[in-house]
Amino acid sequence: MTMTLAALVAQSRNTLSDAGLADPATDARALVCGLLGFSTTDLVLSADRPISDEEQQTVQQALSRRLAREPVHRILGEREFYGVRLMLSPHTLEPRPDTEVLVDAILPFARQCVVADGPAQLLDLGTGTGAIAIALLKEVPQLSAVGADIASGARDMAVRNAALNGVAERFTGVESRWFDAITGRFDIIVSNPPYIRSDVIRDLEPDVRNHDPILALDGGSDGLDAYHAIARNAHAYLKEGGMIGLEIGYDQKQPVTELFAARGYTLIKAVRDYGGNDRVLLFTSQKA
Fold first, then answer.
1. Residue 78 placed within a domain
2. How far apart (Å, rounded) are the C-alpha atoms in residues 125 and 117?
3. Read out DSSP for 84-150?
4. Judgement on whether residues 17 and 107 belong to the same structural domain of the protein
């Protein structure tokens, strides 16, 4: 009997469901559509479309990887973030939807900067795929960005993603541990740094623990190492009146606010994510 598109999706869903995965229907649709080039509309309009043996084999191989807890978008090799397409690699954190909250929070200030003063500069620390910087570059044509990452593989992927999304001429990738290789001053500094406590890493879901790079996860004994590094050094790289936008862990609003306040920064906005958790803090530099 010939396998149809609808039957393949149903079979894939059942396989993942039997293994106890959290969202088998979504995973099945994403894998089948992503691997075979179908849209979600095709799942309805072309449900009876015959599936070749080769296509079945491609999906079965992907299901085996998902059953081993490899994330769907790592299997596909890419994902969408804030309307931009991002390639993934073992060197990069997979961007999460909650990080889009940081883009939304910083975007009005970025637009305000270019309206008031013309072209503006952004520094994205721990850029990974380049997600935050590239999303902002797409939204603000007069913005340019430096994406810094300690991992050369992540830096290279960010540069590749900038080209993929048509903003390569405004994006510069730099291999740097925080500010070590950075020069100049910026209107905006953003970061989604590692903020998970070292002793919690082993308890993360295998989808994260085994596939996201440890450098992008481990924030030290209290999860605050990166925030200390940024707060300690940002004054030398942030323009007067500039803004720092940070993603934080759900329980880190108070300690991160306190350590930045101790360095002369003022919290101007705190934003919660889609689950209602504290997720983004915006600080401004204190005028002399």
1. no
2. 23
3. EEEE--TTSPPP-GGGHHHHHHHHHHHHHHHHHHSSEEEEEET-TTTHHHHHHHHH-TTEEEEEEES
4. no
96 and 144, same domain (yes or no) = yes
Instruction: Say if residues 197 and 223 touch (Cβ distance below 8 Å).
Output: yes
- pLDDT tens-digit profile, the chain (288 residues): 688 999 999 999 999 999 999 999 999 999 999 999 999 898 889 899 999 999 999 999 999 999 999 999 999 999 999 999 999 999 999 999 999 999 999 999 999 999 999 999 999 999 999 999 999 999 999 999 999 999 999 999 999 999 999 999 999 999 999 999 999 999 999 999 999 999 999 999 999 999 999 999 999 999 999 999 999 999 999 999 999 999 999 999 999 999 999 999 999 999 999 999 999 999 998 543
Domain count, the chain: 2
CB atoms under 10 Å from CB of 74, counted, come to 19
Query: Which two tokens mark 27?
Result: 């995973």
Residue 185's CATH number: 3.40.50.150
Tell me if the pTM is above 0.85. yes
Q: How far apart are CA 135 and CA 79, in angstroms?
A: 13
As given in the structure block, the two tokens for residue 30 are 């994403």
**Residue 65 tokens, joined:** 């990887």
The answer to whether residues 263 and 232 touch, using CB atoms and an 8 Å cutoff, is yes
Look up the domain containing 146 and give its range. 89-285
CA distance linking residue 61 with residue 76, whole number of Å: 12
Q: Is the dihedral of CA 211, 217, 220, 221 positive or negative?
A: negative
Tell me the chain's radius of gyration from C-alpha atoms.
21
Residue 229 lies in a domain: yes
